[in-house]
Amino acid sequence: MIEQITDDIYRLLVRFKGAMGEVNSYLIKGDNGYTVIDTGIHAPETKTLWERVLSTYKIEKLVLTHTHEDHIGLARWFQEIYNIPVYVSRRGYEEMRKGSDAKARKNRMKRLIKKHGAPPIPIKIKDQSHIFKFEPDGFFDDNDAITLGNRLYQTVWTPGHAPDHYCFYQPESEIMIIGDHVLNYLSPVIGLWMGEEYNPLEDYLEALTALKDYPVRLALPGHGDMIENLDERIIDIYRRHEKRLEQLLELMTEDEMTAFKLTTKAYGPMKNAAFASQFMATLTRLIYLEEQSKVKVQTTKGKNYYGLPATDLEAIRS
């Protein structure tokens, strides 16, 4: 159930139905008990697993890499049922406040997807706002020193996948708890999950490149296998985004299209739950390209259509 990773770090694979189906939670051993990193979603099966763990292991505190539902899911439960202190970033607390208002979040998301040409959400999304409705016991900020187990880690703000995403770096051991910022074999989805429109891909690529300044022997991600060569994986992900950006520019030589239409062109027709992530990835790439003046946007009947600037089209067709 629990796998030892280093002399003081253990991994608990928390499985559940839906989403990515699992999360890596980490238990870091200290003199006062274990520090837990992330919990998995709020669900009966995750509670059952953690009940078994909590009956055996003394937990000192819970620290969150970011406040997406599959990482913060049981934080309130940890606090209320087991009196375990919960620590979150101040940026994360702002995201919690947004997530706690389910109606406002749903309305923002409806406006966003309509603006970008997507049909109404075909399935009823379960209201998870209750998981955000609690007060953390403590906060951390950028470049703070935080004790996880018996060691001091540096908090490294790495926005993109989430605006409040943090990695935790231990310089002596060269271990980095990397959350969802970098995953092995998968590219983290860069989306607008609170329904607010901004340019997270620019943030992500900058934060991704900045990690190369840290000597990392082993990176511990929020999903999937551990990463032994972080720099190599960073380069792979960066190149993947470059290829997808190039693909979108090529598709727009055909015609102006909404983000939804471009998603179907790039990934195929909307068939399964993965399409929501594909749509978000396409949309954030288009926003990135727009801010770089590589695409133009025209609004017609309340919908945004993306295309190449006229000068670029003329150059391609001449």
Return residue spans where pLDDT drops below 50 for at least 5 consecutive residues. none
- Remind me, CATH topology? Metallo-beta-lactamase, Chain A
Structural class: alpha/beta
Listing every helix as H and every strand as E from the N terminus to the C terminus, the arrangement reads: EEEEHEHHEHHEEEEEHEHHHEEH
Protein name: MBL fold metallo-hydrolase
Pfam families: Lactamase_B (PF00753)
Domain Metallo-beta-lactamase: 22-223
Description:
This is MBL fold metallo-hydrolase. InterPro entries: Metallo-B-lactamas (IPR001279), RibonucZ/Hydroxyglut_hydro (IPR036866), Sec-metab_biosynth-thioest (IPR050662). It holds the Pfam family Lactamase_B. It is a single chain. With 318 residues, the protein is α/β, with parallel strands linked by helices. It has one domain (2-249): 4-Layer Sandwich (Metallo-beta-lactamase, Chain A), CATH 3.60.15.10. Helix content is 36%, strand content 22%. The chain is built from ten helices and 14 strands. The chain has helices at residues 44-54, 69-72, 75-82, 90-99, 102-115, 200-210, 230-251, 259-267, 274-291, 310-317, and strands spanning 2-4, 9-15, 22-30, 33-37, 59-63, 86-89, 138-140, 145-148, 151-157, 166-170, 175-179, 218-221, 296-300, 303-307. The strands form three sheets. A seven-stranded mixed β-sheet has the order 1-2-3-4-5-6-7. A hairpin with a 2-residue loop joins strand 8 and strand 9. Helix 8 (259-267) crosses helix 9 (274-291). The longest helix is centred in the C-terminal third of the chain and has 22 residues, at 230-251. The protein is globular, with a radius of gyration of 21 Å. It starts with a strand and ends with a helix.
